[in-house]
Design a protein that fits this description.
2 copies of one chain form a homodimer.
Chain A (H helix, E strand, L loop, with lengths): L3 E8 L1 H4 L7 H11 L2 E9 L3 H14 L2 E5 L10 H9 L3 E3 L1 H13 L13 E3 L3 E3 L8 E8 L2 E8 L3 H20 L4 E9 L4 H8 L9 E7 L2 E10 L1 H19 L3 E4 L4 H11 L4 E5 L5 H6 L9 E6 L3 H6 L5 H7 L4 H15 L3 E7 L14 E7 L4 E7 L4 H20 L13
Parallel strand pairs in A: 1-2, 1-3, 3-8, 13-14, 13-15
Antiparallel strand pairs in A: 4-5, 6-7, 7-8, 9-11, 9-12, 10-11, 15-16, 16-17
Helix pairs in contact in A: 2-6, 3-4, 9-14
């Protein structure tokens, strides 16, 4: 079954000048894909009639459904209505009902409507209005026949809070019908750590028959995720997804910290909660990043009991109880100090687990023996203590991020009964 | 002088499926516009050879300069190199130097390079490498002649932290030359906080004669920046920029925390250093975010002396010395507790300044009296103590971010001799 093809248009000088980030296109794309459409292109152009016309013409040549945002406002640089009328070879006609509604909206605010606002009610002949409950500009639908094929064109305002309900409540249900198939799409995502995207690619190659499902990767470090998508009639699709997911699971298992849209910090939080465990942190080189990430998860207050950012030796000794003799003998960046920091944090927080990081994030502070990127992680519980040295790379922010990710992965592995130091492929 | 036309391409299924927000196109657009280019279109396509080819062909038909991101990875769905080779009618050739570099990057991590990684060093014949200091995929430049016109094509990786320095350090200086005019563009940026983008727009309206310079905004909260750009022959341009910047400075002064590409945390770090001051943190609702932000700045270890993440009451009492009677009487989310936290942090760290946050980040934990978004900030020195309650909005991550930004702005204002509580327009 061929997918119905869709294109997305975003119009506005604020987008092509980088002044505003286009979040509409991604939002619409996500909804279209979930509805079974294949998004062939996103086209973004500024407020010029010939560029908007180019974008519509390109979209009409490739897609059956086109969803546009922007250019519906009252000012001279809002050109979507008139450009689309030109492309469709239709006159602009005043929609009296919409004109009336716009007048009423101004009256309700106690203001007189500037005459240029009526421009928003001038729609290409044959358009069907898509009401805008939250703003003056109505959206509209217009079918344009091109090379014997009907292009379903939808014009929506660029303001996200106006656009979103119009898309979800009016357009998506209509598109379900237009697709003319019962087939649905279902996907399942695995979150991984400790494996590169290319190695992951090799690992899952052949896991799923291409006829059964499609595998896609997404690397937004520290998250590398792999998603399998299946499609078909509603009856069988869930079973097929389960089957495909199970084949993926067999391959990615050792590197997978969660399934679905879960972050490492959320996965760790869930494991801590499930085990009735709590954690206290002693952060040197990560500077608070581990605490920040863990507390981004709602409910973290029940298991993050305390954290200490101990950058200098004094804080390490005074707050965490690290021995001066340990600092003198091994240096602040050492397994020995990391272990004393972790124990100190655990004691202060009266927590099940103590986690510590100490290292050289750079760009300065490195030595021949301990170059920039040298990081020690320690994790202790009442029963066991783990510590390890890593040699990481990249700039300061990167070393911090990578250290926080490895440290959180340690917590996860300890909670599922693994030796954390044996696991990460990133170790030297 | 006509501006040179540019187009931006973004490639990746994760973009056309809405799984990843495309932030690259906006970033590149902003830089191109500041360099004097007119961005005629942004084209986003998935990982299909024919769609990528369509995007390049469309871009070549309209633009003199094309900047593409994505599709340079090692996996089978990374198609930019081969598609561009096809369009240019050139073979792919292995760049030995880049192949060697990729092998070395893997060796440095103690890993064996999967053979598919070599794909990244296969470039269209005639390409000029744009080195990637932070990742395996090299970027490259390729000139393609189309209808007697040279299209300057640039292919960059999709990972923003890899792409950005390649654009700024390598491509933009080259584009300055390619523009084929002696005129140069110079711009100056002001970073602001405590004012909305539209209010900022009104504030600077008319500050600079449009014939002299152009004003552009960029809102990527918590940063709202305004940039003034002047252009002209090299001789006079710096003086004109100074003049324009001075006029802007008069307007934005009260809201400006830094000039240039400075972050709030870097501005605060610089002020602490210049004043010989140090800081200690007591973070409850921000969970380590302030420490994380401050320690993202190289050299932060000289002024961030200690930090405590004190989520629960126990840590507030045991580590920071908050009185049980204060907690009982005012509750953990109060000015009184915030002040005791700040004093405790200052004492522990033996620092010039103590900074504390306590609040309800949500989504749960709010009450009628202290709803979600209630945040108290306290800042103390040997001489003075400040505390204030804010009513913030948004989700958990947003409340944390906004709180960290206000708190850092307090430190900045205190160090320049202002009353921090009197400044933020966000106060209730």
């Amino acid at each position: 079954m061929a997918l119905t093809k869709a294109a997305i248009l975003s119009t506005g000088d604020e987008l092509t000048s980088g002044r505003t980030l286009d979040t509409n296109a991604g939002f619409i794309a996500e909804r279209l894909v979930a509805t079974g459409f294949d998004v062939v292109a996103v086209l973004v152009v500024g407020d010029y009639r010939e560029r908007i016309a180019w974008a519509w013409n390109q979209a009409l040549a490739q897609a059956d459904v086109i969803i546009s945002t922007g250019g519906l406002g009252p000012t001279a640089d809002d050109l979507t209505n008139e450009t689309l009328a030109e492309i469709a070879d239709k006159p602009l006609v005043l929609d009296e009902e919409q004109a009336q509604r716009i007048r009423q909206m101004f009256a309700a605010m106690g203001r007189t409507m500037p005459e240029n606002n009526l421009k928003q009610a001038l729609l290409p002949e044959g358009s069907i209005v898509i009401p805008n409950a939250l703003g003056t500009a109505p959206g509209f639908r217009l079918d344009i026949v091109r090379d014997g094929r009907v292009g379903r064109c939808f014009a929506l305002p660029g303001v996200p809070r106006e656009m979103k309900p119009m898309l979800e409540e009016r357009i998506l249900p209509l598109l379900q019908e237009l697709r003319g198939t019962r087939d649905v799409y279902r996907s399942h995502t695995f979150q991984t750590f400790g494996i590169s995207e290319s190695a992951l690619d090799e690992l899952v190659a052949g896991a799923v028959d291409p006829a059964l499902g499609r595998i896609a990767f997404r690397a937004a470090f520290p998250q590398i995720s792999v998603r399998v998508t299946v499609h078909g009639p509603p009856e069988g699709v869930d079973a097929r997804l389960s089957e495909a997911a199970e084949r993926m699971r067999e391959r990615v298992g050792p590197y997978c910290y969660g399934e679905g849209d879960v972050t490492m910090e959320a996965a760790v939080g869930e494991l801590l909660t499930r085990n009735g465990a709590t954690i206290a942190l002693a952060e040197s080189c990560t500077g608070g990043l581990i605490g920040h990430r863990l507390t981004d998860v709602p409910g973290a207050s029940s298991y993050v009991l305390a954290g200490v950012v101990a950058y200098g030796n004094r804080a390490k000794m005074d707050v965490l109880g690290v021995q001066r003799s340990t600092l003198d003998r091994y240096g602040a960046v050492s397994n020995e100090v990391a272990v004393e920091m972790a124990n100190g944090a655990r004691r202060i927080g009266n927590a099940t687990l103590g986690l510590a990081t100490t290292g050289i994030a750079g760009p300065t502070g490195g030595t021949a023996e301990k170059p920039v990127g040298t990081v020690h992680i320690a994790l202790c519980s009442a029963q066991r203590t783990f510590a390890h040295r890593y040699q990481l790379w990249g700039n300061r922010q990167w070393v911090k991020l990578l250290t926080s990710q490895i440290a959180l992965d340690w917590v996860r592995r300890v909670l599922v009964g693994e030796d954390p130091t044996a696991s990460a492929i990133l170790r030297r």
